[in-house]
Amino acid sequence: MIKAEQLSKTFLHNNGPHVVLEDLEFHLEEKEFVAIVGRSGSGKSTFLDLVMGLTQPSSGSITRTKPDLTIGYVFQRPALLPWRTVLRNVALPLEIAGEPRQVWEEKARHSLAQVGMVHTAEGYPFQLSGGMAQRVAIARALVQEPDLLLMDEPFGALDPILRDNLNVNLLKLWARTKKTILFVTHSINEAIFLSDRVVILEEGRFIEEVVIDIPRPRDFDTFHSSEFIAKVRKIRSIMPIQPNLPRAPL
Amino acid sequence: MTFFCLLFQFVAVEKLTYAAGYIPNVQFAPFYVATSRGYYAEEGLELKMDYTMGPETFKLVALGKIHVGSADPDAFLHAAVRKIPLVHVATLYQSYPIAMIAREEIFEAEKLRNKRIGITGTYGSSYLGLKVMLTEMGLGLKDVRVVPIGFTQVAALQQASVDVVVGYLNNEPVRLKGLGLDVFTYSPGTGNHIPGVGLMTSRKFVEQHPDRVQGFLRATFRGMHDVIKDPRGCFKLVVEGYLPQLSGSANYEAEYQILLATLPFWQSEYMTAEGYGQSPSESWSVLARYLQKDQNNADYANWQGFIDRSFRWRPAQE
Amino acid sequence: MKIPSLLLKTVSPVVLVLSILLMWQLIIWVLSPQEWLFPSPLLVWTRFNELWHANALQHHVLVTGTEVLAGYGLGIFLGLCSGYPISQIRLLEKVATPYLVAANSVPLIAFAPLLLLWLGSGMGTNIVVAAMVVYFPVTISTIAGFHSVSPYHTRLLHSLRANKWQRFRRLELPSAIPGILAGMKIAAPLAVVGAVVGEFLGTGEGLGHLILEANGLLDTAQLFVAIIILALFGICFYLSSLGLEQLLTGPWHHKRRL
User: Fold this and answer.
1) Region of residue A99 (left: phi > 0; alpha: psi -120 to 50; beta: else)
2) Distance (Å) from the alpha carbon of A124 to chain C's nearest alpha carbon
3) Is A147 helix (H, G, I), strand (E, B) or coil?
4) Is this complex scored with an ipTM above 0.85?
5) Domain at B2-95+195-306, CATH homologous superfamily
6) Using one digit for the tens of pLDDT, what is the confidence trace for A42-66?
7) Going by DSSP bridges, is the β-strand pair A2-13/A59-64 parallel, antiparallel, or unpaired?
8) Model's pTM, two decimal places?
9) Residues 24 to 43 of C: which have CB under 8 A from any B CB?
10) C209–B121: do the CB atoms touch at under 8 Å?
11) CATH class of the structural domain C62-248
């Protein structure tokens, strides 16, 4: 579905060019759940922007096998518009695409149902807790029934117990809807739990890929299984411990 | 001995505030001259000039915050009708120099119809004067176009943004002639003469200190008499003491001309006969009748209760 | 016993007005000032009735009301039109901001006599003065409003491939509305002042003229009538802005968390 070859991206800053991504090779097949793990500043968001087509590569290529690929995007923060009801927030992508009211209203409700949030449809974002809001954001990303779902550390701002809960629910959703998901996180545990394979991004390069062959369906118990712990150990050993990289040259 | 003299000085001189109703200018010459030549001091008074503008002076005098104030006669009657406790004690201007001023001879009904008449504002003495003059010509307010122009009379005529202005004979025509422009004027007819600007004080003050009021009036009219007798000399005195911005300026002569143009309004046959200080009783009646009709209020007829016409002063025979 | 909030909302302004009237009357009873200095509420009410029945008020109220409304509307319209471009173009903003701040700090009504000289006296000039004093706070708060757009939201709309107009309509404008309304609330009483100042300088019409006339006639009751009507104008405009704010942002504002 997605193929990147010798993909590079360089940003120009006041004190010189900053190479964010260098010579990436990547492929993504349909119905896969792939996690990208990397520390803050390793270029994860930039990679997602390239996949989305929001920015162009400095060199190399990124191709989509389907020409009009629809992509849903979930951010780190829910980014719900406070002046719109939950329902209208979910419907936003359809409104922008020009769909009539009956269509977007029905699709938005359906999407909310998929994340279990239909009862909040007439409420406003300020009434939602962090976790609830993020679920609404996921519903929004799904409302156009995209081929690909990009998720950029969507649960990063939430507390760990809630996070685990959402992870389990996400897998259930994925099993139901059979989407292709590319999930970016800096949590090794989360990456392993969710995905079929984990790609490790370090200093702008994909340094390693680890296949996660833990059987599905996975649930809370998976976190304690020996296979899980083994994968954690493996990935930890690959990722070097270094000081944090800045987002832009200091 | 010196101590007692000083004490006497301290006790004998009473401060007296006078609200002139406008910013310092040559028309206040009598007050300036009387102060310079010590006439107030001779009456045991020390004059302090106050330059608050407009109708506020009425309330200030009534409240006793100021002792004596200048009074437009129609405003005074308005105050009297509102039962503000004031007494009118003397008249400074024997007639009101209100006039319509234009650069063409258009002061008859058919020529004046629909012309633009510039006036300070549609209230006050000038508005009343305008109504009187229009009535004399057989016109009403709706037959002309009244345009409020604030204090820009001279500029308005110069630039012809209006056809006529309502102003004062001793002011705008003098200034316009000074700019080399010819002017024509129209004033209210003799039958419609009303008193000019006068002096008022609060009822309380005149009841408690009649001597100070008398002293103030005497000294003031002595000053006025001096100015009439020797305008050039007094003008010099006034400029040096109170209007220093005029000395050496281009306006020096122009302001002197204004002073000269003012002198006739301080005098009249009535004044020559009776002495300084009052206007004929008839002029007050005319005014009262006019206001009664204009304001539709019968209370204006009771003006006698507020106007004390007892003060007179004659200069000592030289 | 819980008092329903709607009842509270309608009763409290009434209570406020009544208490002001009571305090006024109390001052009259205690100090017994002269009628011509400080009239009682009853006297002012009587004078109001006299003027109303003599048809001496209606025209002036209409004149001032029109000036305030037109000035307010014009000032807001121009403020919005200039505020948006300035907020979007960085260079323009750098250049314009010092002038805006300076102009907002100067008491603009001091320019009214100058405007009168250039434009002549009349309702038009008063509308211009009112629009001028409204323009600056509205522009400044419009700029602030458009600056308050969250970068996350901008990224979201960008990722949804929204075009410029959609971005404006669905994101920028709703984000800016609280800021814009704040400016409108500030400007409401200013519009009244602006319109009246022009009238003070002598247009012969309007509530400002009534005030001058009342002053000249030493009719303090009439003065109070005019002043109270002006105050009501200011309050009306303020409440309309408040109402608009409640309408547009009521359900969700001041509770932003996301």
Assistant:
1) beta
2) 7
3) coil
4) no
5) Periplasmic binding protein-like II (3.40.190.10)
6) 678 888 888 888 888 888 888 888 7
7) antiparallel
8) 0.75
9) 34-37
10) yes
11) mainly alpha
